[in-house]
Amino acid sequence: MARRIKEEPEVHRIRIADAAEQIFMEKGIGNTSMDAVAKAAGYSKATLYVYFKNKEKLVDYLVLRSITYLKDYIVDGITKYAGYEERFYELCRSMVRYQRKYPYYFSLVLQKIEFDTGDASRDNNNAAYYIGEQINECILQFIEDGIEAGEYRDGIADVPTLFGLWGMISGIINIAVNKEEYIGKTMCLSADEFMERNFELLYESIRKKNTCD
After folding, report:
1. d(Cα 169, Cα 184) in Å, to the nearest integer?
2. Whether the predicted model's global pTM rises above the 0.70 cut
3. What is the mean pLDDT of the chain?
4. What are the helix (H) ranges across 80-211?
5. How far apart are CA 106 and CA 95, in angstroms?
6. Which of 174, 155, 166 is nearest to 202 (CA)?
7. Distance (Å, rounded) from C-alpha 5 to C-alpha 122?
C-alpha cells in the first residue's frame, strides 16, 4: 500500500478557510459555529483547532487573505496605463472586478481591522493592517504624482481625501450591487453604466480644472 503524502499545514488552513468563507457568506460570522466549519471542511473539531485555535483566528486569516488580494487588484489598476485619467478609472474598475470575484472579501475588508502589536497571537490581523497601510500609501503616491503632473487639483493628497475616495468608490459599487434591479427599473441603466457615470463624477471632483473648462 502506498504511503499517504503528508500535506503542509497551510494546505489544511486553506481548505478550512474556503469552507468557512462559504458558510460565513450564507449565515454570517456570528451565526456560524466552529462545529459547522469543521463539518463543512471535512475535519473533526479537534483537528480544526490544530490549525485555528478559535473563530477569531479564522476570521483574521480570511481578512489577511482578502486584503492581500485587494492590494494586487489596486496595484494592477493604478499601474496599467500611463495617463492619470485612465489610471483613475482603472483603479475604480479594479475594485469592481475584486468585488465580483470575491464578494465576501469585498465586504469583509471594508470592516474594521483592529491593530494590536502587543498581541503576538493576532499576527494575521496585524499583517492585514500593515498591508492596508501599504495600499493607502500606494494610492496616496498615485494622487501625489497626479498633482505633480498637473492632472489632479492641489490639496487632495491627504488621508481624509484618501478615505473619502475609498468610501465613495466602495459605496458606488455597493449601491450598484444591492440596488441593481431598482437602478434598471427607475434609471434605465445597467449596474455597469451606473457605476461608470458615478466614477466620472468622482473623477471630476479631483481633476485639475483648466481655465478654458
Report:
1. 20
2. yes
3. 88
4. 84-101, 103-109, 123-148, 159-178, 180-187, 191-206
5. 9
6. 166
7. 31
